């Protein structure tokens, strides 16, 4: 199988399709063309999205309020303005911190829950449901709950008082020092369930006999996890890293609804910044330039992660 | 077993540890329920239900979600069959064109859709939200289903072909029934994305009678002038359909995810 795949120059790792192709050719029976089958998806997805990207690129060279029939052409003016914009760099910084922290914490928690719930725990289903419920709840719907919970007189500070940590109570979302960490905590709360189910599913596919063999050789829990489980779920970690990057880049609902990108822009992200520029301030041209930069960052990250993965697959 | 504990007291300790770890996940839900019942108790819920047009938000969200799911399911199944089991020149090129869309933050679509919708009079229609949401969800759905269909044994497909069955027949009698587990995962992911989306309806559904459930809390903040208890009651009411849908589909979902695990 491996040689067939290499012969075809197909490194996608999809053995069945390519081998089928080869086999059918050998027998002289022609497999139907797949093109008409993929057309609806391509038309809707690629059509709409690539059209929007092209159009955004065009608008990004205008100074435009979104309505006027004669936009002023400014070339790369919006882009040069952007590189001198402290709010833009603030959004970049928040996005990087946000990704690094939420991804690390979620990976750790998701993996831990997946490992523990794969062991002999009673009522595992109950735990699974509790961890996953935040995933299905809309951030927009939970936002008022978190606003109330993290307010100076909110339930979180009350609990701190109750457990004797009253000195730690503070206006979590009302001050620049804790607003971003609070939003990261909300995000971790929301998406650990997603990380968890993917790891849980990936772990179900680990060959039990390998684990047993390792244990017979005297490997303890820690060794089994670091040497066998962690490497076998690397593909899932990669997928989650990709999704986390995208998630950080498109963060909008939570910072917008919980902190309004504030206080003093401490929780301003690309999403909130672009929304403000395009919808609230009518700087559609500038917002479009921000969008294009955001898109380029997303694509660069996508390529870097892909290269990292293919190099890992080769080694 | 990923994690083995043999002694009974250690097992009990593990149970306690997991319970403590899960508590923070429960906390906001408890705050939400408790807060919604504070003050006037169930009267809060009555007040929420009596706000005119409240049902409208639900119906709008349902219409949008069902349409997005239908579009995504249809497009993804057809495309994944084409990608996984049919002859396709430039297969990976097309696939990457689709997957590239996966990295697209929806806010990038704002400026062009804003102006295009105004030109085509799509503003304040369901389509203004349905089409971009479906376009954004299709890549992930194709990724999941393609993996799944690739894993189906080729012999099945050959058998149908030897009997003279064309691709349409194969699709109807093999793909549709065999992909049920992964279809459940696609439906749930799409449902979550469509039902929970906030930005698209916020921008493209400005008319009150077109707004969706995610805009409800904001609506109630205006309506109840920051009466927290009623705002939280509205959060509970809007969260219920999602929790019910998840609990109902939970088993199927897990099976589908395991079968098509993102590797």
Features:
heterodimer, A: 315 residues, mainly alpha, MetI-like fold, two-stranded antiparallel sheet, 73% helix, globular, B: 263 residues, flat
What does this protein structure show overall?
The complex is a heterodimer of chains A (315) and B (263). By secondary structure, chain A is mainly alpha-helical. Chain A has helices at residues 2-8, 15-27, 35-59, 77-83, 86-117, 124-136, 139-149, 155-162, 176-204, 208-216, 221-232, 234-249, 253-259, 270-280, 284-314, and strands at residues 62-63, 72-73. Chain A has one domain: MetI-like (MetI-like fold, Orthogonal Bundle), CATH 1.10.3720. The longest helix of chain A has 32 residues, at 86-117. Chain B is an all-alpha fold. Chain B has a single domain (38-259), classed as MetI-like fold (Orthogonal Bundle), CATH 1.10.3720.10. Chain B starts with 7 loop residues before the first helix and ends with a helix. The mean pLDDT of chain B is 84. The longest helix of chain B is centred in the N-terminal third of the chain and has 32 residues, at 54-85. Chains A and B meet through helix 2, helix 3, helix 5, helix 6 and helix 7 of A and helix 1, helix 3, helix 4, helix 5 and helix 6 of B.
């Amino acid at each position: 199988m491996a040689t067939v795949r290499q012969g075809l120059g197909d490194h996608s790792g999809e053995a069945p399709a390519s081998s089928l192709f080869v086999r059918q050719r050998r027998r002289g029976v022609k497999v139907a063309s797949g093109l008409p089958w993929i057309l609806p998806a391509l038309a809707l997805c690629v059509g709409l999205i690539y059209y929007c990207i092209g159009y955004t690129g065009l608008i990004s060279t205008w100074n435009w309020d979104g309505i006027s029939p004669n936009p002023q052409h400014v070339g790369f003016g919006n882009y040069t303005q952007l590189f001198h914009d402290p709010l833009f760099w603030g959004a970049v910084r928040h996005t990087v911190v946000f990704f690094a922290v939420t991804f690390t914490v979620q990976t750790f928690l998701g993996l831990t829950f997946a490992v523990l719930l794969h062991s002999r725990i009673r009522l595992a289903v109950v735990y699974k449901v509790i961890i996953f419920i935040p995933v299905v709840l809309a951030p927009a719907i939970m936002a008022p709950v978190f606003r109330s919970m993290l307010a100076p007189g909110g339930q979180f500070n009350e609990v701190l008082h109750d457990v004797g940590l009253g000195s730690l109570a503070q206006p979590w979302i009302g001050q620049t020092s804790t607003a971003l960490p609070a939003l990261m905590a909300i995000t971790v709360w929301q998406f650990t369930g997603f990380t968890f189910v993917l790891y849980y599913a990936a772990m179900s596919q680990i060959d039990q006999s390998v684990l047993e063999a390792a244990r017979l050789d005297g490997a303890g829990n820690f060794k089994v996890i670091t040497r066998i489980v962690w490497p076998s779920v690397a593909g899932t970690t990669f997928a989650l890293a990709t999704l986390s990057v995208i998630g950080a880049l498109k963060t909008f609902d939570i910072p917008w609804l919980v902190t309004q990108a504030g206080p003093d822009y401490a929780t301003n992200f690309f999403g909130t910044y672009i929304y403000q520029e395009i919808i609230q301030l009518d700087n559609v041209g500038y917002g479009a330039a921000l969008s294009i930069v955001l898109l380029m960052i997303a694509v660069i990250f996508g390529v870097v992660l892909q290269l990292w993965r293919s190099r890992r697959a080769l080694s | 077993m990923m994690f083995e504990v043999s002694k009974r007291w250690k097992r009990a300790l593990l149970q306690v540890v997991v319970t403590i770890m899960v508590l923070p996940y429960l906390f906001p839900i408890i705050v939400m329920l408790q807060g919604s019942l504070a003050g006037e108790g169930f009267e809060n819920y009555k007040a929420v239900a009596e706000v005119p047009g409240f049902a409208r938000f639900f119906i709008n969200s349902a219409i949008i979600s069902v349409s997005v799911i239908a579009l995504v399911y249809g497009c993804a199944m057809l495309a994944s069959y084409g990608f996984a089991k049919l002859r396709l020149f430039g297969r990976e090129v097309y696939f990457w064109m689709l997957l590239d869309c996966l990295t697209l933050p929806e806010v990038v679509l704002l400026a062009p859709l804003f102006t295009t919708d105004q030109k085509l009079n799509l503003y304040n229609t369901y389509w203004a939200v349905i089409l971009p949401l479906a376009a954004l969800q299709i890549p992930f759905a194709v990724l999941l289903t393609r993996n799944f269909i690739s894993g189906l044994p080729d012999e099945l497909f050959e058998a149908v072909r030897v009997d003279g069955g064309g691709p349409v027949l194969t699709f109807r009698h093999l793909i549709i029934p065999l992909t049920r587990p992964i279809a459940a995962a696609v439906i749930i992911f799409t449902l979550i994305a469509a039902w929970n989306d906030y930005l698209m309806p916020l921008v493209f559904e400005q008319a009150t009678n077109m707004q969706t459930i995610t805009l409800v809390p904001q609506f109630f903040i205006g309506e109840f002038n920051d009466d927290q208890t009623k705002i939280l009651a509205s959060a509970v009411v809007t969260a219920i359909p999602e929790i019910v849908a998840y609990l109902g589909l939970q088993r199927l979902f897990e099976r589908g995810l395991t079968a098509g695990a993102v590797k």
